[in-house]
Structures are given as C-alpha cells and as structure tokens.
C-alpha cells in the first residue's frame, strides 16, 4: 500500500480535528486515494503541553524537523496569524510539498502569492478551510466560475458574531450577556476581538473577493464595522418591524472596481440570510447563469473545518492519482 | 482552435437554455477548455415548429442523424420520460460519446445502468441537472462523499409545490388558486400532475439516494404523497402556531436499509427548510464530519438548469484536458 506522508503545523482545535478525521476516515481515504495517509510529524509551540498523539509520530517545535521528514508529501497548516505560517508554507512549496491551510489571516494577505508560487513549483494549495469552516464555498465558487460569472457575494462568515446577534434577538439580552454566553458555550475565544470587531470576517471576505473576482479591494477602502455597538434596544426595535441584524460581508464589482463592506445590516424576511441563526455561516452567491443560491452550514468547529481540509487532501491526491493513470 | 462537437436532444426550455448558455458563455468555455464548443445538431420532435437555431446547425427528428455527426463528442439530453431518452443515451455511450442529462424520470430508473455502462466505455455521464435544477447538489455530494459519510438528506426538490404552499400561506388562498397562480407565472405546467403528486420529487429523491447511499429504497416502500389534499384552513391553522407546510423528501439509512418518504410535513422555525419559499429548492445534508449544511437555490428554470449541464460539460472536458497534459 502506498503511503502519503503528511505533517500538521499546529495542534489546536483544527489540527486536532484533522488528526481525528484522518484516523476515523482512514478506510474511506484508502479506498479513494489508493493510499494510506500517515501523519508523520506535528509542529507544536509548547513542548510541555500534554497531547494525545501516537508515540511514533514526530512531535517537534522546529519547522526544520518537519521539512526534513523524508518523503513528506503534504502539510496541513493550522497556525494563527500571518507569520510564521506564510514563511513555512513558502518553504514547503519550494520543496514540492502540497499545502493545505486553514489560516485565513495569512491567506487573506498572501493567498495570491502562495497560489502563484504553487503553480510555479507544481504544488497545490488548498484553502477551503480558511473561509466559512465546513461550508464548501471555495470549491463551489471554483466550480461555478468554470461557467458562470459571479455578480455579487453576500455572506455571514463569522459564527461568533452571528451567535451573539441571534441570542440578543431571541433572548432579549445585551451584547455583553450574549458574548458571555458565547464564551461559556465555546463559541467565542477568551479574547473575542477578532470576531466581534469584524476582522475575522474581513479576512474571509478578502479571500472570497480574490477567488470570485480575481482581485481584492484596497483594504482601507472596505467599510468595516463589528457588532459591538449594537444595543439590546436596537435589536428589539428591529424585531418589532420583523427585521433582524445580521453581520454581513458584501462584495460586488462596479465599473471594474471591487466594492466591499463588512458590517451589521438590517435584513427583512425575504433576504436569503434572514433565517441564518446561531453559529451557522451562510453565503449567498449571485451568478450569471445559475442565479442566486445560498450555502448554509457550520461556520467553524473542529470536525467541520477538518472535513474541509481533508477534502482538499482528497482533491489534490485524486487528481494526482488520475494523472498517473493512462488516459481514457 | 480545437472544437468540441455537441448535440442537443430536445429543444424545450432546458434545451434552449443550454443553447443560449453555450453561446453567451463561449469565451469563458474557450478559456477553460482550450476548445470551442460547437452545437452540431439538435434532435427535435415536431419539424414544423419555428425555432431560433442557427441555419448551419443540423435539425432533425431522427436520432440516427445525430449519432452519425462525424466526431460528435458530447450529447446534452433534455427529453422527458424514460424512453426514448434511455435508448438514445445507451447508444451514445456505446459510441464513446460523453452524455449529460437533465432527464430525472429516466435517470431515477436507469441512472445506475448508464453510469456503469459509461465506466465500461470510458464515457462520463453528467446528471447535475436532474436534481434541483441549478442547485449544485450532485457535485457537492460527490465531493463530500470523498471524505464524509452521509447520514441523512432532507430536501425541498420541487419548486412548483413549494411555490403553491408558499402562496397558500402568504396570501391565504386555496390550493386551486395557488396552482392557477403558478401556472400564470410559468411555474407549473398545463398538466401539473407530476409536480403536485410528488412524482417529480420522488424521482429526484431516488437519484439522491443512489448517490448518497449507493442504493435506492424499494420504490413501493417509499411513502409518497403530494400536496393536493392540503387545505387553506390547515395552512392557516399551522401558521397560527408558527408552523409551515413543506413538501419534503427525506432519506436516511437504518440498519442497512434505506428509508425514504416524500410528503408534506409541518416544520417549525428551527428547521433548516422553514424559510425556503417560492420556487426555490433546498437540500439539507447531514454528513459525518461536516455536520449539517443546506444548499438553497433556483430549483428549475431555463438558465439555472442549463448552467448545471454546462458545468457538467466543463467538468468532463477539463478532466480530459488534464489527462492529455504531462503530469506534474
């Protein structure tokens, strides 16, 4: 049986999810790829933390150790922040290693560079997990773009904000109370800034823009607003009118320029994002032929995000497998 | 420039949509496939009908004429009913011609046979357009199945029924009035039986079952009910309780047996199909890793369905193009 040697960069929620998914879905992958996916190494930050990793897997704090794994074919990157993720993936690509990332902050900034570099080195760069967790928006857009032109994208791409707005509405509680509830439920980080300020949604919006329109707006031109200033009273007043606050990323092209905003808006019942509640993400795409359709699903979470990364793996290696077979 | 020679079987709404889509998206396809898609022939039923087809395209009532087009590479089938669609596609596959179908009645019955035959002859069989029009559920499921197991599928897969139920609720009108409204808007056929009896949804359900679970339930075991017996009063009573009637296809596996039903059910606000209104279709999938997600979009219509068929074309020929290139 052929072996596909893989390494994980980072062993937080997402890294652990990939580890679990590869284990629990081993048979499925074997059947699909005709190969066994073996996790050969895991890059970690704190060597003293206890982790439930098989003893024969290399655990290291040094990226060099990962790069030096003989025959390493694919890296799953689940680190947070632009660096060192970008540098690591650059080096991996230069070595001909396939890369799959969940790192939206890094990818919003450097996605294009990595994709171009990947092309140069004949390496695939999977990034489904960067945007809307388990919702398969990246591959759906890629597929659509084969034939359709994309006119507009509107999306709820931050589950934490959506959960908070949902709870404020349905329970009649304040922003602070809803945030605490999100934290108690594990839907918000201890430091929730990136989610509630809209920065997380901003990164995903830039990634979607790059894919759908081939470019991003100038970042400072994007109207960016989080949900922190929305009051209990506003939410209840809106509710009286059957309107709901949703934190929505909006991207479209006007005279060749990309217009984008990431901010709370009021939507009525006929809006496709009206009923998207809780930690769900949803993305509405307006396409030239297909019309308007919406994808809704888990925007985050260990297994949904891992599923996205493992699907990237499946894509990359089924294509490689197909290329090695005689053509029909 | 290489030419991909194509033929259309049937020139109703869907056939015309494909014709239009191939024309309007010619540049996009050229860029993608490195080839020009040329419609070389159209199979029609009534030779006396006036049609807006380029004069240099072969128009014929004889399938033999289509089969004999020199170098024909792909057939788009948009005929209604099991036959002659099945026989035609069989013969096309035997000649090594790629086939793409929108014919759900035929594909529900013979999909497996055609796919197996296609495999034997090295021919692809595209069937995205058979189910939920422009909603890309077939390719999304295929993609998911690479890694996930599907636990359950629930869907609104008939736009006509959904439109009627929506209008009954929102306007407080009777079934008959809503049906007439649907007919006036072009959302229901003159003979609406297949839509309102649930038969159309049944076919799509069988296609989804085959794909998701590798088999279909015994047809006579499926609980099948249309929307004709739902009264104005029932709809309004439900509305008082904030419940809505939705015509829902439901498929899951229990002890290795497929359980399926296609019938009106009452859903509450937390159900993912609660807000799917009008002619939209929506499909909720519960997958082992990904969790629960929903695809919503235009369930029918000329261009959405055509988009699905042209995407099938793009898939088939990009894979072929890739196979002809040196592997990376």
UniProtKB/TrEMBL annotation, chains A, B:
What does UniProt list as catalytic? 204
Q: Which Pfam families match?
A: Homoserine_dh (PF00742), NAD_binding_3 (PF03447)
Keywords from UniProt, A to Z, are: Amino-acid biosynthesis, Methionine biosynthesis, NADP, Oxidoreductase, Sodium, Threonine biosynthesis
What are the binding positions for L-homoserine in this chain?
189
| Keyword NADP attributed | yes
Q: Where do the annotations place NADPH binding?
A: 104
Q: Where is the signal peptide?
A: none
Pathway linked to the protein: Amino-acid biosynthesis; L-threonine biosynthesis; L-threonine from L-aspartate: step 3/5; Amino-acid biosynthesis; L-methionine biosynthesis via de novo pathway; L-homoserine from L-aspartate: step 3/3
The chain positions of domain Homoserine dehydrogenase catalytic read 136-313
PROSITE patterns in the record, alphabetically?
HOMOSER_DHGENASE
Please name the Gene3D superfamilies in this protein's record: Dihydrodipicolinate Reductase, domain 2, NAD(P)-binding Rossmann-like Domain
Recorded catalytic reaction(s): these are: L-homoserine + NADP(+) = L-aspartate 4-semialdehyde + NADPH + H(+)
EC number per UniProt: 1.1.1.3
**A Gene Ontology biological process annotation?**
threonine biosynthetic process
Q: Does the keyword Amino-acid biosynthesis apply?
A: yes
One molecular function GO term is:
homoserine dehydrogenase activity
Residues holding NADP(+): 10-15
| Annotated Aspartate/homoserine dehydrogenase NAD-binding domain residues | 10-127
The similarity comment for this entry is: Belongs to the homoserine dehydrogenase family.
PANTHER family attached to this UniProt entry:
HOMOSERINE DEHYDROGENASE
Q: What is this protein called?
A: Homoserine dehydrogenase
């Amino acid at each position: 049986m052929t072996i596909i040697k893989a390494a994980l960069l980072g062993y937080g929620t997402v890294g652990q999810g990939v580890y679990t998914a590869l284990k629990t879905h081993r048979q499925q992958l074997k059947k699909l790829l005709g190969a066994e996916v073996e996790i050969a190494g895991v890059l970690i930050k704190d060597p003293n933390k206890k982790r439930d990793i098989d003893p024969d897997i290399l655990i290291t704090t040094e990226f060099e150790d990962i790069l030096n794994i003989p025959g390493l074919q694919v890296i799953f990157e689940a680190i947070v922040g632009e660096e060192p993720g970008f540098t690591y993936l650059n080096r991996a690509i230069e070595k001909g290693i396939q890369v799959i990332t969940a790192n939206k902050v890094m990818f919003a900034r450097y996605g294009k560079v990595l994709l171009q570099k990947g092309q140069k080195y004949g390496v695939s760069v999977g990034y489904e997990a960067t945007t809307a967790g388990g919702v398969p928006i990246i591959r759906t857009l890629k597929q659509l773009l084969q034939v359709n032109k994309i006119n507009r994208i509107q999306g709820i791409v931050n589950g934490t904000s959506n959960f908070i707005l949902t709870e404020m509405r349905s329970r009649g509680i304040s922003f602070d109370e809803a945030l605490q509830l999100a934290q108690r439920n594990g839907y918000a980080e201890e430091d929730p800034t990136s989610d509630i300020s809209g920065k997380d949604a901003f990164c995903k919006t830039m990634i979607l823009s790059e894919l759908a329109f081939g470019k991003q707006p100038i970042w400072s031109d994007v109207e960016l607003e989080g949900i922190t200033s929305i009051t209990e009273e506003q939410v209840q007043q809106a509710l009286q009118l059957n309107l709901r606050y949703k934190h929505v990323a909006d991207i479209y092209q006007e005279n060749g320029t990309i217009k984008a905003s990431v901010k709370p808006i009021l939507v009525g019942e006929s809006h496709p994002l009206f009923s998207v509640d809780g930690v769900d993400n949803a993305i509405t795409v307006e396409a030239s032929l297909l019309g308007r359709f919406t994808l809704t699903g888990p925007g985050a979470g260990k297994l949904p995000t891992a599923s996205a990364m493992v699907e990237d793996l499946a894509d990359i290696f089924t294509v490689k497998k197909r290329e090695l077979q005689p053509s029909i």
